[in-house]
Amino acid sequence: MTYHAAPAKILIVDDLTDNMLALEALIRGEDREILQASSGDKALDLLLCNDFALAILDVQMPGMNGFELAEFMRSTDKTRSIPIMFVSAAGKEMDYAFKGYETGAVDFMHKPLDAQAVKSKVNVFVDLFHQRGALLAAREDLQHAVQMRDDFMSMVSHELRTPLNTLFLQTQIRKMNLEKGSASALSPEQQRLGVDRDQRQIQNMVKLIDDMLDVSRLRRGALAIWPKPTDLSQLVRRVVDGFADQASSAGCTITVKAPPAVSGVWDEFRIEQVVVNLLTNAARYGAGNPVDLTVETVPGGVRLTVRDQGRGIAPQNHERIFEQFERAVSNEQIPGLGLGLYITRQILAAHGGSISVASALGEGATFTVSLPQDSSVARHD
Question: Which is more confident, 96 or 89?
Fold first, then answer.
């Protein structure tokens, strides 16, 4: 999480309103919020529902005095770590300072107060409060990063194990046939199907590795695009033809609706990656239903939509699915690392384009890609 420095809260406790107003005027600032309590009981109410950077307590108050309030604060988990400064009009010969430090105070000031010293001391505690908040946020970020790393390694291991197991099994079958002298045990058609199956598994592993490399490049800001004149209609049809085996395995058909030619300036390899990612998603989540892919020109650019008729995506997940390692369903239900849509959005952003989703549970999903006509210009705007 990123630390957002909210105003540091400072509590002033004094039974005399004039004293509180004078002290507030002395220490107020844009980076702090001052709360006042005219008694120990009122101070307790505020302490239990606020996080304070500092409490400034008057010693001599009717009812609960400052020392008693400090002792209560030190006995409660929520308030134990709040720094306490005492102020007192009593003479130094009263040994109040010694008792104040015994109750856990970090400072003791005698009235009349030294304005510059009070300001400096309060500023130190406000700075410490913000530094502590930043450190806590950094620790949470680090813990989250470690957890993401562990989750990522677990997902990668799981996703690579499936195609490797299939390849290993096919290799063992062939080895067994060779050892038995039965090299021709499989018909040419069975051999062809086995090779095709092996090729798909290898392609799956290559895509996983490519996705991991792309995420690494994105984190370093090194995902380059090289726009050149490209026919989007031709690119889409080529991708769909190459996707035929995967679509068949998923039990779905892909219908393309596009003009004969849609010319623009884009990185052909990266836009092909976008189309593959969207078709892969549609095949995985489309429940074997038809997938529609549409390309059309719009003022200033082009629009590409991929629509499936699968399980759909709940509205609260529409943004989340474009983040790293995020998916609309669990890993156990559908394979994948949860990187495809994240990479897709980053590729389109590098082109000056965008992607959005329209969906509801049980109603399928429509992903809409918008691209400028010339991404070489958009990149430099």
Answer: 89
